[in-house]
Amino acid sequence: MNISYKTVHVSLTPEIERYTEEKLASIEKLIAGNDSICEVILTHDEKHASGVTCRADFTVFSGKERVHAVGHGETILAAIDIAKDELANRLRREKKMHVRLLRKGGTMIKNMMRYGRSE
User: What tens-digit pLDDT sequence spans the chain (119 residues)?
Assistant: First the structure.
């Protein structure tokens, strides 16, 4: 998986980059193709004095599909954790939907082949 980074009001340190790559490695098995691209956008809102000030956006492009997840947190690492969890949930849901449609189509074909038979 290719990962591209964009930061706004955040300096991309090797620690943050390594942490993000570790988190994305855990969801790589949920992505269908090897030619997938992940865009990571990390921002820090300087207008807030306290509370949720960091945001992490993950967008995965795999073939024709695009899956997007956003995480908000008090620190950039917390925002990355939340965004990774949301992205994993969305990818699992997409994968389950594809399997469900494949099985449903197989059942329909099997029923059409049985048409006219008496059991």
Answer: 888 999 998 899 999 999 999 998 888 888 866 778 899 999 988 776 666 789 999 999 987 888 899 999 989 999 999 999 999 998 888 777 777 777 788 888 888 888 756 44
The 8 Å CB, 24+ separation contacts for 98-106 are none
Q: pTM for the whole thing?
A: 0.76
Helix/strand/coil (H/E/C) assignment for every residue in 36-79: CEEEEEEEECCCCCCCCCEEEEEEEEECCEEEEEEEEECCHHHH
